[in-house]
Design a protein that fits this description.
Elements (H helix, E strand, L loop, with lengths): L10 H13 L11 E6 L4 H15 L3 E6 L12 H19 L3 E4 L11 H14 L3 E4 L7 H13 L20 E5 L13 E4 L4 H10 L1 H12 L9 H12 L6 H11 L9 E6 L8 H7 L5
Parallel strand pairs: 1-2, 1-4, 2-3, 4-5
Antiparallel strand pairs: 5-7, 6-7
């Protein structure tokens, strides 16, 4: 009886071609969306620090979450307590919608009373793990406001701990430490901010301003009152946004941030009008330049 031999030989060239195509530079690869979590002390801080970059990430299909560690219940000259906290939570939800981010969570810790204790650290660890974060953004522990300082402290204290199974064991640990970065500030002591990455937000500035515009209690009431310019705030909503643009955009870019823009954008950097900058925290995963280009996919 004659038995037909399997036709395996003809498969070899086809399999080899597939392997070469997969390995070829520029071959189509399915890369999971990035997952970014941004922490601020109060509702509106994430928007101020990273709103433009968050909008760029979201527009590229990446998953961005904002977390305010306090409920903002002290941040107003004539309102406060639970009513203000509720108002600010609603403002945050609207701001997140305008930015296009996936989620904006406001924790129920009191404004002005944040401490870098174990309970708050565990809140942050859980959220970084649950989000499966690739990038964690937070302020540096250098700031005039204790809530801002302690947000920086508590978030950097979670670096490494997010991968330790016996720490906060009610939430599965990450298998890889995220890249932690600090958002920009101008404070000089004990050490000045170092802009490792600078992102042009000229293309997302309108979304950032729209998000800030949602924080009515802050950008049109509380912060102008603190600065002594409340009488200068227009009453009409359309005029307010124009006023806000003048307050929150078009400021001179610091020389070191401009230099960072040139590193990442080349000659195009000199035309950038508004930017957000970030410093890599040495306590998280230490990224290479290639890692940063993957995590901040805006420079091509």
């Amino acid at each position: 009886m004659h038995t037909r031999r399997p036709r395996t030989r003809s498969l070899v060239p086809a399999l080899a071609a597939l392997a070469l195509a997969a390995a070829a530079p520029g071959a189509a690869q399915t890369q999971a969306p990035l997952r970014i979590i941004v922490f601020g002390a109060h509702p509106d801080d994430c928007d101020m620090d990273a709103g433009g970059t968050a909008a760029l990430w979201a527009a590229k299909g990446h998953a961005v979450k904002f977390v305010a560690l306090t409920n903002g219940d002290a941040g107003h000259q004539s309102e406060g307590g639970g009513a203000l906290a509720k108002r600010r939570r609603l403002e945050a939800q609207e701001a997140g919608r305008r930015l296009g981010i996936a989620e904006y969570e406001v924790l129920d810790n009191h404004d002005g009373e944040l401490e870098p204790n174990l309970a708050v650290r565990q809140q942050v660890i859980r959220r970084i793990r649950q989000w499966q974060a690739d990038v964690v953004v937070a302020p540096r522990p250098n700031d005039y406001h204790p809530d801002h300082r302690y947000t920086g402290v508590v978030v950097q204290d979670t670096a490494y701990m997010v991968v330790v199974p016996n720490v906060t064991p009610d939430t599965p640990p990450l298998r890889k430490n995220p890249v932690f970065v600090y958002s920009y500030d101008h404070f000089q002591r004990p050490n000045p901010f170092r802009p490792d990455v600078a992102v042009s937000i000229d293309g997302s500035l309108d979304k950032k301003l729209a998000a800030l515009d949602a924080h009515v209690s802050q950008v049109y009431e509380w912060l102008p009152w603190v600065d002594g310019i409340l009488d200068a705030v227009p009453k009409e909503s359309g005029s307010r946004l124009t006023w806000l643009r003048g307050q929150r955009s078009g400021r001179p870019i610091a020389d070191d941030v401009r230099a960072a823009l040139r590193k990442w954008y080349g000659p195009r950097a000199d035309a950038v009008k508004d930017a957000e900058a970030f410093e890599v925290c040495e306590y998280g995963r230490r990224p290479t330049e290639a890692d940063l280009r993957r995590l901040f996919p805006f420079f091509d």
